[in-house]
Amino acid sequence: MSIAYGRISPWATARVLVQLAWARTFSVTLVVGLIGLLLLPVLFALAFASRGSLSGDPVAFLVQRYDSLVCGLAMPLIALLLGTSAFSAETDDGTLLYLVTTTTPRWWIACVRVMYAAMVTGLLSAFAVWSTGAIAADGSNPEHVTTAFTVAVLFGGATYAALFTALALLTRRALVAGLVYVLFWEGALSRTFPALHYLSVRQWTLAVASSLTDSSEKALQDGPSLTASVIGAVVVVVLSVYVGGRRLQRPRMQR
Amino acid sequence: MSAVPTSDAPMPLVFDRASHWYGDVVAVNDVTCSIDAGITGLLGPNGAGKSTMLQMAAGLLAPSSGTVRVYGESPLDNPSIFRKVALVPEREALPSMLSARAFVEARAVLLGLRDPKLAALRALTTVEMDTVADRTVGGFSKGMRQRTKLAAALVHEPTLLLLDEPFNGLDPRQRLHMMRLLEERARDGTAVLLSSHILEEIEGVASRILVMLSGRLAASGDHRTLRRMMTDRPHTVRIRSTNDRALASALLSSPTVMGVDIDADALMVRTADYTGFAHHVGVVAQRASITLLEVQPTDESLEHVFAYLVAR
C-alpha cells in the first residue's frame, strides 16, 4: 500500500510543533520559575495596596514597577526560558533531527516556535501587568497605564521571544548568552547610554506603553519614538525567523 | 566499490569524491560510492566517519568538497527529499512525555501525510509496537526506543532508509525481527544503508558492505569477500607455554607459521592462516609434550582489521 501525501497543513504542523515544544519546555522547575517571576510585581502591589492612602500616586508606582519588574525582569526572563528551552533541549539530545528530516519548511518551524514563545510570554506578562494594576489601583485603570502596559508587554514579549528562539539555534549556551544580554545590555548599558535606546527591546516596549497612556512619568519620556520601536521590533522578529529557518537547514548536531 | 553511475535513472544515493571535515579533523575523506536498492552495510570502528556519511546523505551536513546526490538531487536545503528519505539516528533520545503513537503521528503530520493516524498505526504495527503505542516513550527500554525510532522513519514508507547503528540495544529476537523487516523493504525496492561497528551485525543482512576507516572507504564487497580478507590476513598470536623455546622450534616447521619471536615470557608467532594455525598449534604442543598456558591473538580489534584492509 502506498502512502498518500496531502498539502503541508500550516495549522496541523503548528499544532504538532507546539505540542513538541510544550513537551520539551514543561518541567516543575520552569513552572516554579515562572510563578516566581510573575509573583514579584504582584507582591509589590499587595504591599502598596496594604498601605492605603499613605501609599502615594498609583500611576507613578505602577509605571516604576512595570518598567523595572515586568519589562526589565519578568518579561525578558520568561521569553528567555520559553524561547530557548525547546530548541536547546532538542539540539542537546538530538531530537531536533526528527523535525528537520521532514518536508515542513524550516522557516515555518522557526516561525511557529517564535509564535509559541511569543504568545505564552505575552499572556503571562500581560497577566502580571493586569493583576499588579488591579491590586495597586484597586480595579481602576488610572491614565490608561495598565492597558498601555498590557499592549506593550504583548509587543515586547513577542520581540524578546523571537530573539531568544533564534539564539537557541545559534549557540549552545543560549540561556547564558540571553541572561548576559538581559542583565548587561538591557539592564545596564542601554539604560546608561541614551544612544543605545534605539537598540533596546525594553526601551521599545516602554515607547509603545508611552504612546498609549496619558502618564508623563519620566521612564516613559526618554525612549525612542513609536515608529522606530515598531520598525526595530519587526526587523528583529523577521530576522530571527529567517536566521532560525536558515539554521534549521543545517542544524548544529551534538556528536 | 561501485563506480558512480552514468545512466539516466538516478541512483538513490551517490557520493562522488565527498569529504567533510570539522575544523582540522577530517571525518570523511574523498569517498566515492553509490547505494542502490537492497541493503548496504556501512562498517567501521567508532569515529570512522559513518554518522557523518549518513548526515551528508540526509543533507544535514554539506560536503566540504565533492558532491552527494539523492535521486539525482542535492539533499542540501531541499526538504522535499524527505518524501523519499528517512534517517534513523544513533542517539536514542525521544520526547519523553509523548506516547509512541503521538510521536510517530507528529512525524506523519510534519511529513504532510494525508492520514497521519493510519500511517502511524501501520508503522507501529510493522515494528510490533502497536500494543504499547499509548505508553509514554520516557518509560521505554532501549529496544522499544529503537523500534519507535524505526516506526517514525518508516511512517511515510521511504525508498531510501538511512540507519545509524540500528541494532544497538535490541535483544536477539528483536534484532532478527528488524533484520527481517529490512530485508522485506529491500525486496520491495528500498535502498537501505545501515551503519555498524560490528561485522557480525550486518553480514547476515547486508548484501554489500562498505568498510570505513579514518574517514576513508577502505574496502567494499559482499560479506564473504570481506570475511575472507579479514581472516586470511597476517595475525600475530601471543603464546605462553611450559617450554617456550622448544615450542618455538617445533612451530617453525609448521607451514602455517611465518615467523616466531621469543619475548621474555611469551612467544610472538606470525601466521597468514589463522584458522590453520589455531588447529595446528595444539597438535604441535601435544607432540612435544608442552602445555599451552595462553594463546591470545594480539590484533583482533576491529581497528587492526581495518588498518590491515587499508594497508593492502
Structure description:
The complex is a heterodimer of chains A (255) and B (312). With 255 residues, chain A is mainly α. In chain A, 75% of the residues lie in helices and 0% in strands. Chain A contains nine helices and no strands. Chain A has helices at residues 10-25, 28-50, 58-93, 97-100, 106-136, 145-170, 174-192, 201-212, 226-249. In chain A, helix 3 packs antiparallel against helix 5 (106-136) and helix 6 packs antiparallel against helix 8. The longest helix of chain A is centred in the N-terminal third of the chain and has 36 residues, at 58-93. The radius of gyration of chain A is 19 Å and the shape is elongated. In chain A, 49% of the residues are buried. The mean pLDDT of chain A is 90. In chain B, helix 2 packs parallel to helix 4 (142-154) and helix 3 crosses helix 4 (142-154). With 312 residues, chain B is an alpha/beta fold. Helices cover 34% and strands 27% of the residues of chain B. Chain B has helices at 50-57, 100-110, 116-126, 142-154, 172-187, 199-203, 223-231, 244-252, 274-287, 302-311, and strands at residues 13-22, 25-35, 38-43, 65-70, 85-88, 160-164, 191-196, 208-213, 216-221, 235-241, 257-262, 267-271, 292-297. The longest helix of chain B is centred in the middle third of the chain and has 16 residues, at 172-187. The two termini of chain B are 15 Å apart. Chain B is built from ten helices and 13 strands. Classes of the chains: A mainly alpha (255), B alpha/beta (312). The A-B interface holds A 1-9, 12-13, 15-17, 19-20, 23-24, 26, 93-95, 97-106, 249-251, 253-255 and B 22, 51, 55, 58-62, 76-77, 79-80, 82-83, 85-87, 89, 91, 93-98, 102-103, 105-107, 109-116, 119, 122, 152, 156-157.
